[in-house]
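Retro notes - structure team

What went well: the batch runner handled both jobs without manual restarts.
What didn't: labels got mixed up in the shared folder, which is why I'm recording both outputs here explicitly, each with its sequence directly above its tokens.

Job 1
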Amino acid sequence: MVEVFGKKATRFGFGEALVELGKRDPKIFVLGADTVSSVAINGFQEKFPDRFINVGIAETNLIGMAAGLAVAGFIPFAATYGVFASGRPWEQIRTTVCYSNLNVKIGGSHSGLMVGPDGATHQALEEVAIMRCLPKMKVIVPCDLIETRKAAMASAYIDGPVYIRYGRENVPIITKEEDVFEIGKADVLRDGKDVAIMACGTMVYEALSAADILGKKGIKAKVLNIHTVKPIDEKAIIDAAKECGAIVTAEEHQIFAGFGSAVAETVVRNCPVPMEFVGVNDTFGESGEPYDLMTKYGLKDVNIVQAAEKVLKRK
């Protein structure tokens, strides 16, 4: 059974990390875009007002100012809703931040369908794709509050731009404080030799739940939490492909060009095996309760089980 240690939104882990970083390092600077409390960066604003700027609803300025702060020697974290943090200032991220390899960290909150009632315009389902295609950009999709906190802490001290994707809705906490988190290193959460389930973000819990269901059917699933989409842990993926001979990927994102595609790129070059992809299938979301939307768009444990059973027929 999946062990759960409560439920809390990943955005609070991001906010907690920034406060802790702010205490440790005067070079940490935070910028918001009029969604300060929503994306949980208000704690930093309250404690370090001299190192905080709310630029208003002006995401291109958000990234431009963060870039300037990086040039000046600060470590800026720029955070707002993921769909706006990635989409509106994409050219600034590409040309100003990535081209110059500036030390800008971008927090994309309210990701995926779990934004719920805010609807399609606010449900970021494409940002992993448009961020991971940028040279020098690192992309992290943590699975719970604890891992999000660790991701933000770690990203502060790796060179160059980082995009961290996190969410609004309360989700199960499935990692522990003592678990080791390393950017670019996948975590094997469950051993199995029949099929490998690789997931990121909210779908890691669903993957573990799916493994429980499969286990009752006599199918032993290996579960990997691949929190770093770029640079992706190619060794872990190749090892799992060789061991299991079949892979299912799961992401709260479009199935095109995102996490599943990143896994497939590694697999096809190194150890081609049958694959199935669980994610949003070439459509926008809609307004609704978060978990109702996850069910409607096929992002639940039962959908992973179905994909696993399907891929096993192709081994």
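Job 2
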Amino acid sequence: MHKKHLFVFDIETVPDYDAGRRLLDMPDAPDDEVDLALKAYHLEVTDGRNDFLRQPFWKVVAISYVQCQVEKADEAQTQGGGRVRYTLTRVGSGGEAGSDEKELIEGFFHYIDQKAPRLVSFNGRTFDLPVLKYRAMVHGLSAPGFFDTSNKWENYTQRYADAWHADLLETLSDFGASARVKLNEACRAMSIPGKLGTAGDDVSGLYAEGRVQEIRDYCETDVINTYLLFLRWELLRGTISPASFEASINEMVNYLESERSERPHLGEFLDAWRAMAPS
């Protein structure tokens, strides 16, 4: 049974130095000292392998998404296989640039509780969702819809339940049987723009300068990348037909063009996408 809603999501985060101060008993230390101490701590607990902060120590500053309706494909769109088509409804970000973390996370889980969408992410099981769950607990939030396991094998917490959450990093690597590639690598191989100047490492600096809207814009281009990669995956699997694939691609092109004047980053993405198209 296919879900009625598709929700491709991505988050952007910055270190939570207040949580770091509590962990390391550094109540009065400035952020730069806490940053160094947190990295040293993570190097220590990973035997020198990695200074990347564990999930509880990140603060969510943006949640972006591509929303689609999942519809039964019409007769013309089932030629060559495929049962469904994805109809684009919106590319956006939760809340506003001034929204606090609690509001963003509450909105995310409320949407899941209300719509029960099929989730799509890239590395969402390893990073995005664990961060969202820890931070929801920080704020005392509740998300019963997400944790409903009344169907033991088909639910959001079941790693292999692709119809509930398709983490492309996992599915494309056969859950680690082959190399787990980066989103930018997979996108560029398929003439999808991938990163356009801004990268995840830039987010903390942008946030420190109060440039939250730029973070949201960057996150939106990342979810478009993820959605376009997902369409290729669905075409490969035969979930959608070549006709449905082309219809979804054309909808995204038209959407980006229509949003260009109000949201220039979407126009820039479209221009880069067109420039990469095979001649």
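One thing worth noting from job 2: The longest strand covers residues 58-72.
We'll revisit the folder naming next retro.
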